[in-house]
Specification:
The structure is a homodimer.
Chain A: E1 4-9, E2 13-14, E3 20-21, H1 27-39, E4 44-48, H2 52-66, H3 68-73, H4 75-81, E5 84-87, H5 90-101, E6 106-109, H6 121-131, E7 135-140, H7 147-150, E8 155-156, H8 173-185
Parallel strand pairs in A: 1-4, 1-7, 4-5, 6-7, 6-8
Antiparallel strand pairs in A: 2-3
């Protein structure tokens, strides 16, 4: 499997009523997802938002872990956060990857609600071996990625179905990221 | 697999220096872990702390999602949180399970740092089929479960190793819970 990147998208996102919105970056999404992606050998984590003030907010958080105090107290945290990149859009993130590796990444979308999808994590692993290109694994926030994103990817992953007898299926995005990381790269 | 329970332990916990401490309950640990456990068909989630004020804090948070506003805004959240139980100790949690099901649960400990362990998730699934008893899956906070816990369980699970080439392995407890839920019950 070639270089893998992860993206957490805050725009364009759908809210509860189906409107297109921009969600806020949260501190835990920064930390938990960086630690999962880093543990599973991803090469970078893009936090996607067009809101410049949120870029500054994330920079402040990252700076804390890069100071003498933060770094001394928890150097592993600094290590996980050092591979975070801010991106104004998903297109920009893909462009950064393409410039770095000389190939556009395979765009993979995740969603809890896909009725149609292109395959399982195992299928995707096979595809990545054959295509031999970088990949960007895309997660939404709020009530999920806008259709303009999911309709313009190369691969839509099978949702995580869980095992609740009554069909309850409401993982946090942080939990979904961890599970997909493990399914895609857990036995590498 | 019989009835499965999850426990998040805040005492006795080890801190960075190896001291025995009591950690604080955090809002995200309540929510993310409840949603993972509920999605994967667990029967209950015990938040273990001897600090009575923390019991009241959790109750306040749960009450919010049970009010008209919280319930109307996000009924799925209420649903996930409704199976949370507070416990003063792990022993108390096990006693509750035993009283409910007429059998003491198999105690399973998780840790990122186990050098010796009793088997993988697949091994544990096999054991649970044979033993046909309830299970409690135990997670630590802070720098991990105190030895007095891990030395007194029936099964110590293989750590999650990830796939980082440099061996980086620092998942949040919320991510570790999600991954173990998926490995243990993802294909049920």
């Amino acid at each position: 499997m070639k270089n893998c990147y992860l993206a957490l998208v805050h725009h364009p996102i759908v809210n509860k009523r189906g409107d297109t919105v921009t969600t806020s970056v949260t501190n835990l999404d920064i930390h938990d997802i960086a630690r999962s992606a880093r543990t599973y050998g991803f090469d970078g984590y893009f936090i996607v938002t067009p809101v410049e003030k949120q870029h500054a907010l994330v920079k402040n958080i990252l700076d804390h872990w890069n100071t003498d105090y933060g770094n001394e107290y928890n150097p592993d945290r600094k290590d996980a956060l050092s591979f975070i990149n801010m991106a104004n859009s998903l297109e920009y993130a893909c462009k950064v990857i393409e410039e770095k590796h000389g190939q556009a990444p395979i765009k993979v979308a995740t969603a809890a609600g896909f009725k149609d999808f292109d395959g399982t994590c195992e299928d995707l692993r096979g595809k990545l071996e054959v295509d031999n290109r970088p990949m960007i694994l895309i997660f939404g926030t709020g009530w999920g990625l806008h259709a303009s994103v999911t309709e313009n990817v190369d691969f839509r992953l099978e949702p995580i179905f869980g095992a609740a007898k009554d069909g309850y299926n409401h993982l946090s995005v942080r939990s979904a990221v961890a599970i997909y990381c493990d399914r895609l790269r857990g036995s590498l």
